[in-house]
Amino acid sequence: MFKDFHDKYKCIFIHVPKVAGSSIERVIYQTDKWLVGHVKASDYTKFDKDKFDSYFSFGFVRNPYDRVVSAYHYLKNDSPDPCDIKWGRLHINNLTFEEFILSLQDEEFKEEILSKNHFSFQYKYLCDKNMNILVNFIGKFEKLDNDFKKILNILRRKDSLVHINKS
């Protein structure tokens, strides 16, 4: 679960899907590789709470409507991941965005959609089951540049954010 880059940079970035995570991860961990994926803060604490607590941990959240729009388009058209492409074809490929939203009234469809990490509630990545925030800092996508600068200051870094994987 913990990787060598966590130890090197003394921080843990919780990558909430469709909230600029790929861009943030690449700057923070100085790589262009896919690293950890969408691991929840609670999973880190279950694995090694002391280590998690000793590192600076952070994540970002996004306006839920904008995130749903982004996830819908990403899974329908833009994902390079074969599993995402297959999932998109199976669940949303034949639906316009309006049809997709209206289909969420069907409980079975809604349950299937919410089981996909791109649509899962954001708090599930950053909080424990009792809704206690587990990370040290939560930034907002809508204030990404400003909040990311705060993180860089905390980490005593002089990098800048490069936006990739926009949807």
Automatic annotation (TrEMBL):
Keywords, ordered alphabetically: Glycoprotein, Glycosyltransferase, Golgi apparatus, Membrane, Transferase, Transmembrane, Transmembrane helix
InterPro entries tied to this protein: Carb_sulfotrans_8-10 (IPR018011), P-loop_NTPase (IPR027417), Sulfotransferase (IPR005331)
GO molecular function: glycosyltransferase activity; sulfotransferase activity
Superkingdom, natural source: Bacteria
Membrane topology category: Single-pass type II membrane protein
GO cellular component terms given for this protein: membrane
Gene3D superfamilies the UniProt entry points to: P-loop containing nucleotide triphosphate hydrolases (3.40.50.300)
Keyword Magnesium: no
Presence of the UniProt keyword Membrane in the record: yes
Main location per the UniProt record: Golgi
Protein name: Alpha-2,3-sialyltransferase
Annotated organism of origin: Campylobacter coli
Record lineage: Bacteria, Pseudomonadati, Campylobacterota, Epsilonproteobacteria, Campylobacterales
